[in-house]
Design a protein that fits this description.
Length: 306
């Protein structure tokens, strides 16, 4: 027995030494993973299941029917889906045009400490409630707001411009202002993680700055570009506050269309439309996962010593 005990004890010690760290990491990850599962995955699963149920008075009852999806894709709400895709794509393109130069300048032309401070400033607006920030555009773009007063003072127009508010222009401004800052961070991370030696090699070979950017910098930053596209597109595609506040009465995108279905207690239809939005988001994430290496975006964050 004593010999057997001497043989078993070293095995237990080796197990603790080799498996102990992995068990500890698993225990630390268990709580946040459980929280994500309970707060995100379970509600999404219930939403998907309810999209196949049927409406019964003020509530819903279990069933397996595609009536909600048929009502969505065969009715006028399909045009709302098409319009939402167009608006989200336009907001994403314009946001990318604005965010890329900012991220490029911060990642490659500014000291690290200054870049960190500027990136911190981009988070300051998010300390203010989202609805309040959106309502501030109503004042800025109104007939008596600063923008119209500036246009009149500059001689651009003789009277207030009406289409600045409660129009596509106002919705685009509100959505770009809301989601463009989110697009800066993945672009900055991807550009900051570039191997500078590749850019320098292009210069040594005689390439002009424009050619270096198009042939070296831009292709290497594409993971960050696609991540920024996801952030901008998904946010604009599902937004509900901006279309209501800045679009005016009757302006419909997917976000406030889902809210309208909830207002009339049509939960299966709202769940079906929400499932379409989530499926679109997952499709983008899947394409990003298959096309790019995640480390190309997160490598800079993981390696930077603050």
């Amino acid at each position: 027995m004593s010999g057997l005990r001497r043989e078993v004890v070293p095995d237990i010690g080796a197990f603790v030494r080799t498996r102990g760290p992995a068990v500890g990491r698993g225990a630390l990850l268990a709580l946040p993973l459980a929280f994500v599962a309970g707060a995100l995955l379970v509600p999404l699963g219930l939403m998907f299941v309810w999209s196949f149920w049927e409406r019964a008075g003020f509530w819903i009852r279990p069933a397996f029917t595609l009536a909600s999806y048929a009502e969505f894709f065969a009715g006028p709400r399909l045009s709302v889906l098409e319009r939402s895709l167009v608006v989200a794509a336009g907001v994403t393109v314009l946001g990318l045009v604005l965010a890329y130069p900012i991220a490029y300048f911060l990642a490659l032309r500014v000291r690290r400490d200054l870049a960190r401070n500027v990136l911190l400033l981009f988070t300051v607006p998010f300390l203010v409630n989202y609805i309040i920030r959106t309502f501030s555009w109503v004042y800025l773009l109104s007939r008596t707001g600063p923008v119209n007063r500036a246009l009149i003072a500059a001689g651009v127009t003789e009277r207030p411009v009406d289409w600045l508010l409660f129009s596509d222009f106002a919705v685009f401004v509100g959505l770009i202002g809301s989601y463009m800052p989110f697009m800066i961070y993945p672009l900055w991370a991807a550009l900051g993680g570039l191997d500078r030696r590749l850019v320098e090699a292009s210069w040594l070979l005689g390439a002009r700055p424009r050619v270096t950017f198009l042939r070296v910098t831009l292709p290497l930053s594409m993971p960050g570009v696609f991540a920024a596209v996801i952030f901008g597109f998904v946010g604009a595609f599902g937004d509900s506050a901006v279309p209501i506040i800045l679009g005016g009465v009757g302006y419909q995108l997917m976000g406030n269309t889902i809210t309208s279905a909830l207002d009339v207690l049509n939960y299966p239809l709202a769940a079906a439309m929400s499932s379409v939005v989530v499926a679109t988001m997952l499709a983008f994430l899947l394409v990003w996962y298959l096309a790019f290496d995640l480390r190309a975006v997160l490598g800079k964050i993981a390696q930077w010593r603050f």
